[in-house]
Fold:
Amino acid sequence: MKITKFLKKKRVVWTIIILLAVIAIGYFAFGGNNKTSGIQTATVAKQNLQETVLSTGQVVSRVDLSLSFQGSGVARQVFVKEGDEVAKGKILALLDQSSARASLMTAQGALAQAQANYDKVINGATPEDIQIYEDAVLSAQEDLRDTYNGSSNTLNDAYIYVYNAYRFVVLLQNNYFGASDQEGIRVQDNKNSINEKMADIRTAIDGATTNEKIDSAVSVIIGDLNSVQDSLRIIREQCDEGAYANKVSTADKTSLDTHKANIVAAITSINSLQHSIASDKIALQKAENTLTQKTVKPRQEDVDAAYAQVISAQGQVASAQATINNLTLWAPAGGTITHVGIKVGEQAAAMTEVMVLQNVSDVYAEANVSEANIASLEVGQTIDYTFDALGPDETFQGKILTINPASTVISGVVNYKVTGSLENIPDIKPGMTVNMTVLVAEKDNVLAVPSSAIINKDGKKYIRVIDDLKTKKYHEVEVQIGMQADGGLVEIISGLTEGQMIITYMK
Structure:
């Protein structure tokens, strides 16, 4: 009994071993070593090919205007709402115009004044006006005369300042700079220079007997005073050099600084005198010129100048009117208001969109086509449309209207804008997504293979043709290709015949 059980167990074990061996042999013979399991094939056949260019774009209105005010302000009136149909020229909204209208009134007043002045130039001055201009000349003459008459005091004061400074420098030299050192020599030289300039000033003052000589004396004295100022500066510097820094008393240094300040004040006074004389001369000349102009027949250039003021004032009126216009929003074309972005009381900024005007019945399609496909397109080609809003089963046709020659880079790809006609297509609106398909080429009954079957080597194209269907043995054949069609198909011009089995993929 035990022997029988043992034999049964042994038979089961051997049966399992034999089955495993058979499975292993089958795997290695038919599966694990099957080189054809990673190969995909196809048959060379004649097909109808089409090449299309696909693009997705939008429906665009031919009238698609972003409307904005040219000026800034608070909205006072808004006359339209979204969906309203408007005609060209209709007023859509107004900003506050109170300040602008006040400016317009001011400009109109300036225009009236300019016009009155022009009329006055044409008609000439009245006797009363001439008397006023004559009085102005007399007044200017008197002012100039008074300035010249008062110049002697200013000039003499300058001389006194120089004289006092010179006397102090003499005293300073005697008390401190008697030695023939470098500092003493500098003090001596500049003392002599001050003395020379003092003599020049005295001579200029004594000779200032006419207005012309006073003018000359003023110029000479200004130069002499500046020279005296420089000499006093140098002498003051010597007081702080070497042993003189402690030798010259503080009081004397202070006195020297005072004389320098007096010379500066004299220079300021003489300069002021010179300026006053020049100003009075200019005023007199202007008064005389005005009198001459008013007592003779108006010159053509005066008439022209007055007329130019009229033109300028007219321009100001036009500018003020333009400001009012900039606070008014008109419809530049007929259409539908599709967006209103402002309410009464809100602040509107210049050149910021407040409304959108579109002609929803006059639209076209617009899409970007990559540079790889743009060469296949031309104006007039038929476009097949579908719209996301209408579903994929609704198809329509149009024509290519324009191909923009200027490129646009989108996500690193060069694209060209293409527009297409949309005629008699109901229920479409600006902004809808449109899918555009353009058939650019088609061929019927030509040999074609999947593009995955083509191998590129050494600038040539090859296809692997199967010799043995069971073992999938193959050889490579050079081919010439033609149209690259939709669906990944490529036309074969030469190298293959219909019915051949080829490899499209090999692991």
About this structure: The two ends are 58 Å apart (CA to CA).
